[in-house]
């Protein structure tokens, strides 16, 4: 049986495939994620104030599911420092007043792990928690951290699910 020819069209990051199959992102997935962070077409700017911008993109027109992209300017902090701070789960408990609990579950590769994170949300939202596949890769002057919600046989979140990722660029901006 012949394998189908590989598509040359950008496919976007591939870690989430129907929520049943998860793959650790490869270099192409990181490039695709960075391109999506930088893309403007198809995104609607819904908030921009004090160095924070938020864009929304409808995923399916007949449903209320949306992608959300945020950018925060951090002018006095190098991207490399933000990258290091976001990786340090013990230090996060000191600077992130919203963290309830965070811990590593399993190391998958040199730049991917599965972890747990719970946080306090402002009212009227309920506190949230999530199990994520977290992958990271410095790409020149950019530092990419991608997170995807996953199911894990040993540990499950107590509450809701969300997907998110970080792209830290040479412009000292944080994009989530």
From TrEMBL:
<dbReference type="GO" id="GO:0046581">
    <property type="term" value="C:intercellular canaliculus"/>
</dbReference>
<dbReference type="GO" id="GO:0005829">
    <property type="term" value="C:cytosol"/>
</dbReference>
<feature type="region of interest" description="Disordered">
    <location>
        <begin position="1"/>
        <end position="22"/>
    </location>
</feature>
<feature type="domain" description="START">
    <location>
        <begin position="42"/>
        <end position="176"/>
    </location>
</feature>
<dbReference type="Pfam" id="PF01852">
    <property type="entry name" value="START"/>
</dbReference>
<dbReference type="GO" id="GO:0016020">
    <property type="term" value="C:membrane"/>
</dbReference>
<dbReference type="GO" id="GO:0005902">
    <property type="term" value="C:microvillus"/>
</dbReference>
<dbReference type="InterPro" id="IPR051213">
    <property type="entry name" value="START_lipid_transfer"/>
</dbReference>
<dbReference type="GO" id="GO:0008289">
    <property type="term" value="F:lipid binding"/>
</dbReference>
<dbReference type="InterPro" id="IPR023393">
    <property type="entry name" value="START-like_dom_sf"/>
</dbReference>
<dbReference type="InterPro" id="IPR002913">
    <property type="entry name" value="START_lipid-bd_dom"/>
</dbReference>
<protein>
    <submittedName>
        <fullName>StAR related lipid transfer domain containing 10</fullName>
    </submittedName>
</protein>
């Amino acid at each position: 049986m012949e394998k189908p020819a590989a598509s040359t069209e950008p496919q976007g990051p591939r870690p989430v495939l129907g929520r049943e199959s998860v793959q650790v992102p490869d270099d192409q997935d990181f490039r695709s994620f960075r391109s999506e962070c930088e893309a403007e077409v198809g995104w609607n700017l819904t908030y921009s104030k004090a160095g924070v911008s938020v864009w929304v993109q409808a995923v399916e027109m007949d449903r209320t599911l949306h992608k959300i992209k945020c950018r925060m300017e951090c002018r006095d902090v190098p991207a490399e420092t933000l990258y290091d701070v976001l990786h340090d789960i013990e230090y996060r408990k000191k600077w992130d007043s919203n963290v309830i609990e965070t811990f590593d579950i399993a190391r998958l590769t040199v730049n991917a792990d599965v972890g747990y994170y719970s946080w306090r949300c402002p009212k009227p939202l309920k506190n949230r928690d999530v199990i994520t596949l977290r992958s990271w890769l410095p790409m020149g002057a950019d530092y990419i951290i991608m997170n995807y919600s996953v199911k894990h046989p040993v540990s499950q979140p107590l509450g809701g699910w969300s997907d998110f990722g970080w792209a830290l660029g040479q412009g000292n901006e944080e994009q989530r």
